[in-house]
Amino acid sequence: MNISISRFALVSLLILSPALASAASGSKPDTYSSVDSNTRTYSRGSSEDWKGSANPSDFNFSALGGIGVIDDYHAGFSLIGAVAKKILDRGFVPDINNQVFIEGEIGPVFVAGNTAWFYSVHGRWDFTLNPDWTFYALGGVGGSAQGSGLGSHTVFFPRIGAGAMMSINEQVALRFELSHELIVVGGVFRL
């Protein structure tokens, strides 16, 4: 028992040591800064959470995989591709760092030897905590098209969801998304 507690303490210390060192030195996380309205850069500096400049990317491309749900009761493995275009650099709340994207998602959902196609067009409202974390909400229209093995029909429905992105650098992030139709994780490539 003492050995497992010691291992746990050692692993915890190793995991927390960068955070403890940065807290002790008083350093702040990376922030986005703006030189002027046409030039945006990623730099180190201090900034209050939710208040920094927007990520400079105007386009996002995502590759996601996970669980997809078709017709409320068929679940299967999904592979989803997404393309997003920024339409508002500063979103609807002027006091915080928020951007609005229009996004489309499409991909197959493999269910019991059959394939259905999931699709969605929605608005994505990003809220950037700091350069490392962005949380988002989405809302729009989604649907699926199924072959004869799943009832041979097409459906449309309103779509809402939420997610988070953890930045690896300015161009690449990990993405997690949760909605009624999808639970997916993958990568985001920002241009």
Characterization of the model:
This protein is mainly beta. Helix content is 13%, strand content 61%. It folds into two domains: 2-27; 55-190, Porin (Beta Barrel), CATH 2.40.160. The chain has one helix spanning 2-25; strands at 30-36, 39-44, 59-70, 74-88, 98-111, 114-130, 133-146, 154-167, 172-179, 182-190.
Spatially, the strands of the biggest sheet line up as 3-4-5-6-7-8-9-10
* Total discrete domains: 2
Secondary structure category: mainly beta
Number of helices: 1
Please summarize the sheet with the most strands: 8 strands, antiparallel, barrel
Straight-line distance between termini: 50 Å
Low-confidence segments: 1-46
CA radius of gyration: 20 Å
Please tell me the overall pLDDT: 82
CATH topology group of the largest domain = Porin
The total of beta strands comes to 10
Strand content: over 45%
CATH C-level label of the largest domain: Mainly Beta
CATH architecture of the largest domain: Beta Barrel
Q: Helicity, in percent?
A: 10-25%
Describe the secondary structure blueprint for this structure.
Blueprint: H1 2-25, E1 30-36, E2 39-44, E3 59-70, E4 74-88, E5 98-111, E6 114-130, E7 133-146, E8 154-167, E9 172-179, E10 182-190
Antiparallel strand pairs: 1-2, 3-4, 3-10, 4-5, 5-6, 6-7, 7-8, 8-9, 9-10
Would you kindly provide a brief summary of this structure?
By secondary structure, the chain is mostly beta strands. It is built from 1 helix and 10 strands.
Tags for this model:
1 helix, 191 residues, 2 domains, elongated, Porin, two-stranded antiparallel ribbon, disordered N terminus, eight-stranded antiparallel barrel, 61% strand, mainly beta
